[in-house]
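*** Backbone structure tokens ***
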Amino acid sequence: MTAVLRALSHGRQRVRTIDERLSRRGGRRRILVDARTPVNYTMVAPVVRAFGSDPRVDLFFTASEEPRRMARIYHEAPHARLIHPARAALMKFDAYIASDFMWATLPRGTTRVQVFHGVAGKYGFDAPDPSMLGWDRYFFVNERRLDNFVSSGALAPDSPAIRLIGLPKVDCVVNGSFERNAVLTGLGLDPDRPTVLYAPTWSPASSLNDIGTELIAGLCGRPVNVIVKLHDRSRDLRRRYSGGIDWVRRIRPILHPGRGVIGSGHDISPYLVAADLMITDHSSAGFEFLLRDRPLVRIHRPQLIQLARIHRDYVTLLASASESVVDIPGTLAAVERGLADPDTHSAERRRVASELFYRPGSATDRSVRALYEIIELAPAPESIARREAPCQLSA
């Protein structure tokens, strides 16, 4: 029986090798991107833009779990070639990229690349279980997560699947692609006023669901600009994501024209650059804001920490680099203190950012080069050069 299984496995591998050679005739390669939400796409958008200039590479985009939402998920991906997962299953791809642990059915085989979608330590990303295994490459965002995978036994220290890449999404936060005043002017806000960004995570247990509207109203009563950045899932009217609330409709009447906006872009990066202070509860965006070394106010939500299975180390890290509060009066007071003395916690902000973001500003370059290695193509010079191109801004 063992000999039969071994023969079947050998035969299957031989068929896949022939299939791969035939599919690569003419030097073309195919890459499939899979996403659950628009935020998933923002994680790979800089890499997609780089490959978009290489005529040898065909990019396809799918949503293996909710194909009916594909157009919405990728609406910020210009000229995206959308493909239903059923059709994708019939095609041969040289690489499959996902920033979450979805798993498209691809019987003809591929190299599966996990790029993750944040650094907040949620949902077991830093305590890997068997559902996170089986990928051919892991593009780790930092050494901490890599070490956690190795120490848990999920990966061997010398595993060929390991690549230390960083987070391409945040390159735009540090490389000068966005300019504060230009972003604010584009949003219809006055650059001469201090700007506060409120970016809660999604969850019925988030600060948005508990005190969000009252907090926003309180901020609007201060002499500041207010940018509200809703998580994609907070815009999803299904109860398990937003609590069943249409947050855009609820928040919009609270905001003062010319003083407050809901950021409509799915990439928070331009808003991070524009903000002088940020309020969150527990989100990857909160950690990303540390790269700006500006004041961060953290609303402590114990139930959120439990529901989102946030690794305790990350709770401690965010708390150490921010001012922690529990209610609206405390939050508003912390905002005033942060704007008045922005250097408080600066050393901790810089320390945590350096730990969680591996060489920010050049992650896209490493990701592009690693993918060219996977699809066995020499990098196109113009594709690598594209990493310096400005990121896209959706006001």
